[in-house]
Amino acid sequence: MDFETRQARPSDVEDIALAHRDSIQSIGAAFYPPEVVDAWQEGVVGELYLEAMAGGEVFFIATGRVEGASIVLGFASDYPIEGSRHGTSVYVRGSAARRGIGSALVRLAEAHAIAAGATRIEIEASLAGVGFYTANGFTEIGRGVTHLRSGYAIDCIFMRKDLVV
Q: Model-level pTM greater than 0.90?
C-alpha cells in the first residue's frame, strides 16, 4: 500500500478521528470485549485532537488512496509528559495494518520527541498494540489498567523506549 506521511493540521482532525475509531473497531475488537470497544471509541471526535494540538501534542498522519479517495490511514503523536519523558500513541486502520505505516509514523513521533529534548518515551499500550510497540523497540515495564476518556478502565501494558539522542 502506497502512503505518504506528514505533520497533521487542524483541518485533518475529523479524518484522524475516523481512522482512530476504525482502528479501535477493527483491531481492538480482537483483544477486548464489545463493551470495552464501545467505551474506548466513545468521545473519539475531531474536537479531541484540536484540544490536544492546542495543548502541545503534535500529530503525524499517513494518507493513501482507497477506492480512488485519499484517506487518513493512521496517525501517531508526540507529547511531553515531564522533563525529558514524552508519550506517544499510534493507531492504524485495520485495512492498513501490518504494512509499515505504523512504524513509519512512530519514527516521525520519535524524531519529533528527540528534537524536543526527549530521552525516553513512556506509554500505556492497549493489548492490541503490544506486539506493534515491541517490534518497534519498546519494552514492557509493568502491567495494569488505564482509564479511557469515558472513565472506563481497561487492561494495558506499561512500556518504554529509551531514545538515542
A: yes
